[in-house]
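Contributing new records

If you add data, match the layout below exactly. Sequence lines come first and carry their own label; structure lines follow with theirs. Keep one chain per record. Anything else will be rejected by the validation script.
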Amino acid sequence: MTVIAKGRDAPAILGKASLAYLIHVQTKEGDRPQDKEWEWVAHAFGEQEPELAERLVATVRAWDRHIRANHNDQHADPALTVHPADTPDDALPAVDVLDKDHCRLVFRWLGHNVALPAPVERPEADVMAEGV
């Protein structure tokens, strides 16, 4: 069984003595933002390294294919709102909340509570997982 790690800087999947996490790396420099390019990379460690990296990549692809692709009229990036630090939980939406010293940050992801269908199988060469 694996679980999604919460409250961390990078999306991650935890397994028994194993970990997979998603980061982005810059692959092309540029003077203007539109000239720069970034790539998402899954890193994994431990006995379940290939399985967890593959599961993380499949989850991201399923979200991209089934959630983001079906909501062209909405922005796919998370919406962020900032609330005073003393705002009670029941006054905030039931989404991801990051508590800071002076405020509470609320992130709303498109499709946050939607169950994804099983990822589509694909050729091994298409996998962007990277074992470390």
